[in-house]
Design brief:
Length: about 230
């Protein structure tokens, strides 16, 4: 019996496969590999070019910077939210009291800042700012209830705090000069935390003197002393 005939197309496919898998087709072109069996070789760097030096990338430092930037953005967003909540709360309060006033929102350093301006606002300030201090605490509580975070928001009404800051800055500067000359301590009148901080900040910028707080609220006061 004669051997079966191999179809022509089968022979052709076998030849094509053989050619496709041969070294001539799969082998890379000359000059594209390094050592035998290794990855493609890179061109030699020019020693005089910037490309000759590859600077290492500190991924840990970059991650830390990204984390810090993200935390800063979150803190700023929280302060903005505090201002928005406080603004809404105070607007409702003004409506209830039937008092005209505009509300300005800002961020000062690491605190949200809210100010009520315009209109007759003396009743909201009170004697020596007592009513203002109470309203600030109520506003902080409203903000904390909404955000879940203790608020250090600052409230000003009718420019009272701004004027008080200016007056205390001048007073602290004068006391610092007297103490520096006499070398004798001076005790100031009782102040709230905002006022004491203004005085401490001024005294800290004057050479030869320093300040401390003494006493208990509401009679806590600043003492200005000469440096030893």
């Amino acid at each position: 019996m004669s051997a079966p005939q191999t179809p022509t197309d089968t022979v052709t496919d076998t030849a094509a496969v053989s050619e496709a898998t041969s070294g001539d087709v799969l082998s890379p072109a000359p000059g594209t590999t390094g050592e035998a069996g290794g990855p493609p070789a890179l061109p030699d760097a020019d020693a005089g070019s910037d490309d000759a030096v590859v600077e290492p990338v500190d991924l840990e430092d970059e991650a830390d910077e990204a984390d810090e930037a993200g935390e800063a953005d979150e803190a700023d967003d929280l302060l903005v939210r505090e201002g928005d909540v406080a603004g809404d709360y105070l607007e409702r309060l003004l409506d209830i009291l039937d008092v005209d006033g505009d509300i300005d929102l800002d961020v000062e350093g690491d605190r949200a800042s809210v100010a009520i301006v315009g209109g007759r606002l003396n009743d909201l300030i009170g004697a020596d700012g007592a009513t203002l201090e109470a309203l600030q605490e109520l506003t902080r509580l409203a903000v904390a209830q909404s955000t879940g975070v203790r608020s250090r928001l600052m409230l000003d009404i009718g420019g009272f705090r701004a004027k008080r800051r200016s007056d205390l800055t001048a007073l602290a500067g004068e006391v610092a000069r007297r103490v520096g000359s006499s070398h004798q301590p001076e005790r100031l009148s009782p102040m709230n935390p905002f006022e004491r901080k203004v005085v401490h900040d001024v005294i800290a910028s004057v050479a030869g003197v320093h300040s401390e707080s003494e006493g208990e609220e509401p009679n806590r006061r600043v003492v200005v002393l000469p440096d030893k």
